[in-house]
Structures are given as C-alpha cells and as structure tokens.
Design goal:
By secondary structure, the protein is α+β, with helices and mostly antiparallel strands. The chain has a five-stranded antiparallel sheet, with no helix packed on it. Strand 3 and strand 4 form a beta hairpin. Helix content is 26%, strand content 24%. It has three domains: 74 residues, no CATH class; 45 residues, no CATH class; 66 residues, Methane Monooxygenase Hydroxylase, Chain G, domain 1 (Up-down Bundle), CATH 1.20.58. The termini are far apart. Helix 2 packs antiparallel against helix 3, helix 2 runs parallel beside helix 4 and helix 3 runs antiparallel to helix 4.
C-alpha cells in the first residue's frame, strides 16, 4: 500500500505524479464513494495500466466536468488499496451484481433496490433484493450524464414535489420547482432507447409544469 502526496506547511495535498498527467484514462462510469483513512472519497478512475485508484477526497457529489469542480483544485489520493464503500442509506444510488439503481429499503440485512439499468415495457420498474453483501454507494449522475429516461424521471419527481408545495399554499416554492422540472427536460434529445412512455411523460411534464 502506498500513497503519493505532496505536503506543505499549511495543508496536505495529494497530487498526481507528473508522468501520469500526460495521458489520462476515461473516468469510471460508476464512481464509488469510499471510506478512506482520510475521510470520504470518490473513486474518479481506476487505471488499467497499474491498478491505481484516483480518489478525490472530501467532495463526493460533484462531477469532474461541473463548473464548480473546475474552479478548484481537489485533494487527491492515489493508491492500489481497495477501500470499502461507505454504508448505504435509503435513497442512495448504488450498484450491485444486477446493475445500478436506487436503494429503496433496508430490512434485516436485506437491501431492496429499484434498478435503473433494467427497463421493462410500459412503466414497470425492476426491483431486486440483495442479501449477500451491501451494495456499493455511487455518485449520483449529474444532469448532463443522464439519459432521456433518467431526466424525465427526475422531472416527474420534481413535479410531484411542486404539487405538494402548491397544496401547502407555498406558491413560490411550487413555481420554482415547476420551473426546475421544465429545465431538467428542456433539452432532452430522444433516440432509439426512448420508449413511447418516456416520450409521452415528457409531453405531460412540459405542458402541465408550464401551465402551472
């Protein structure tokens, strides 16, 4: 086990060795959130050439391509060590042996996951129950990383949230949330993976949220 670090008098900073800056491999498709010796971290990529994991410490939510992330230089840890995933909580995005999904329930060491990587006809969701080992927690996708179905699902959840604000007579909160739902799907580009249900849901969201 080793770590590559550059220490100065004011802080500890883990920097990438110059030789590996020349050509970077693609980032991991599912970036696991792990518990390191230095706190929580995000495995940005696992290098195939040497098995080294590039772990961003502290900020585990931002995408590397987000404007907020690009404005600062993150603390990085480079190690071959396999750190464990942080404990999963309900609502976390997770990966298990069946794919990626959202953790819906935890009961007696049984994890109920609604899979996003599996899609049936209509609006049916695929749910699995994992008992062998806890699923790994992964960073939630940023908007630009989502496919059409994910964007529509996010907009539908915000539409439901806006309706709740409206019923509570919080009209400002409802208006802002309806507008946010429209923004999530404003630039959706359909392709061959977009089902008729996704296309129909998009039309409903655009019409109902815009009218509200």
């Amino acid at each position: 086990f080793y770590e590559i670090m550059n220490m100065n008098s004011s802080s500890h900073r883990y920097t990438q060795p110059p030789s590996s800056r020349q050509k970077q491999e693609p980032e991991d498709a599912d970036q696991v959130i792990v518990q390191t010796d230095f706190g929580r971290g995000l495995i940005v990529r696992t290098r195939k050439i040497d098995g080294i994991k590039e772990i961003r410490l502290g900020d585990v939510k931002s995408s590397s391509s987000s404007p907020a992330f690009r404005r600062r230089e993150p603390n990085m840890l480079y190690t071959p060590k396999d750190y464990p995933s942080v404990p999963p909580c309900i609502g976390d995005d997770v990966i298990c042996e069946y794919g990626r999904g959202v953790l819906k329930e935890i009961a007696d060491d049984k994890y109920t996951i609604e899979l996003a990587s599996w899609r049936l006809s209509g609006r049916s969701n695929v749910t699995c129950h994992v008992v062998s080992s806890p699923p790994k927690v992964v960073r939630k996708h940023a908007l630009h990383e989502m496919d059409s179905a994910e964007k529509v699902a996010l907009a539908k959840s915000q539409k439901a949230e806006a309706a709740k604000y409206f019923s509570e007579k919080d009209y400002t909160g409802a208006l802002n949330t309806y507008a946010s739902a429209v923004d999530k799907v404003r630039n959706v580009q359909h392709d061959h993976t977009s089902s008729n249900e996704v296309r129909a849901d998009l039309v409903v969201i655009m019409i109902t949220c815009s009218n509200n």
